[in-house]
Write a structure and sequence with these properties.
By secondary structure, the protein is an alpha/beta fold. It has twelve helices and 14 strands. The protein has two domains: 59 residues, DNA polymerase, domain 1, CATH 1.10.150; 262 residues, Aldolase class I (TIM Barrel, Alpha-Beta Barrel), CATH 3.20.20.70.
């Protein structure tokens, strides 16, 4: 439903914003904390659910503000690993996909920050669909709220559609809300931002004095190969990216995760593994190896299991930590690199 343009959408705002609004209404500032709890922790969809507010206050809030909610269009459950993919429609009819991944007691909400993506990585379904727009803070948080209504999340990753660092302010605000006890109550260490690698913004994130995790989608050990797979590398080459990763190490005291998608005959050789080990030398990091997830209409394939294991085994003694990640939800196109909405 279209809202009055004069009304304020409270989804995505935080305590300072609520305090200012309540001040103007002649209300005590402690109401701001109650409002945050109702909107984020209790997932209120309208003011009349806020039972500890007077009827007069609820009526006045309803006249000047509203709580926007994204619309769930459909969901799909993987038959392989019970991960669930959600298609959400935004207020302007744009759509985004999000994923809830389950592994033992760990429940991870994979959240989008943009509708589409402007970076055009050649192996990624989201890159193929192009860029529509940035998501608001409320739209980012609302994906987590909607998914965790089905099952509470223990972790969140800003790893869905889009480049989070190109929607920096809204993404950071959303992460702070998810981190807060009045939001999703996730500790900063259980919230990870995944980026294709924008050095200046990585350094800016390191200055925020927050202990969020950082994952860098690396995918190639040389500029020549990375330029072909990820056009962003032409503007932000590996030497600058590695310098930013070291800065993040130093300022946050946290290690960086390098995501490395293994693609048949592109970046999966022993020579590539050696070059990768040299590239990350001196950086406190973990390397996440991800066998390529097939995307229709793209000319890439997954390496054989033998090649995947050989790459891991060659890399492991030469790097601080190496894991082989089996993506969730591949059968419903919910795995890494497969998210794409269709008109």
């Amino acid at each position: 439903m279209k809202k009055d343009k004069e009304k304020i959408n409270l989804k995505g705002l935080w305590l300072d914003d609520y305090e200012r609004m309540l001040d103007e209404l002649g209300e005590k500032r402690f109401r701001a904390r109650q409002m945050a709890q109702w909107i984020y922790a209790k997932r209120a969809t309208d003011f009349f659910q806020m039972s500890d507010f007077s009827k007069d206050l609820r009526d006045r809030l309803n006249q000047i503000a509203y709580i926007e909610n994204i619309k769930l269009v459909k969901s799909q459950t993987s038959q392989k690993d019970i991960s669930e993919k959600f298609l959400f429609e935004l207020n302007d009819k744009e759509k985004v996909e999000s994923v809830l991944m389950l592994e033992g007691k760990r429940v991870t909400a994979c959240i989008s920050t943009q509708a589409g993506c402007p970076l055009g990585c050649t192996f990624c379904a989201t890159g193929k669909m192009g860029f529509k727009r940035n998501l608001t803070t409320g739209e980012i948080v609302d994906q987590a709220l909607a998914m965790t209504a089905f099952k509470p999340a223990t972790h969140a990753v800003l790893m869905g559609m889009g480049e989070p660092l190109m929607n920096y302010d809204n993404t950071l605000q959303a992460m702070r809300i998810m981190n807060n006890e009045m939001g999703l109550s996730l500790t900063a260490g259980k919230i990870t931002l995944s980026t294709a690698g924008i050095p200046s913004m990585i350094e800016k994130l390191a200055d925020e004095n927050m202990k969020f995790g950082l994952a860098i989608s690396l995918n190639a050990p040389t500029d020549e190969k990375r330029n072909r797979l990820m056009p962003v590398n032409k503007k932000h080459p590996l030497d600058k990216l590695m310098k930013a990763a070291k800065t993040f190490n130093k300022k946050t005291k946290r290690r960086v995760t390098f995501e490395y998608v293994l693609i048949k005959d592109i970046n999966d050789s022993e020579k590539d593994a050696l070059a990768l080990s040299k590239l990350v030398a001196g950086i406190r990091c973990k390397i996440n190896l991800i066998p390529y997830n097939l995307v229709p209409d793209l000319p890439y394939e997954r390496p054989s299991e033998e090649t995947i294991l050989a790459f891991r085994d060659y890399l492991y003694p030469r790097c601080p930590a190496v894991t082989l990640r089996r993506s969730k939800g591949e059968d419903i196109f919910a795995a890494c690199g497969q998210l794409r909405t269709e008109s």
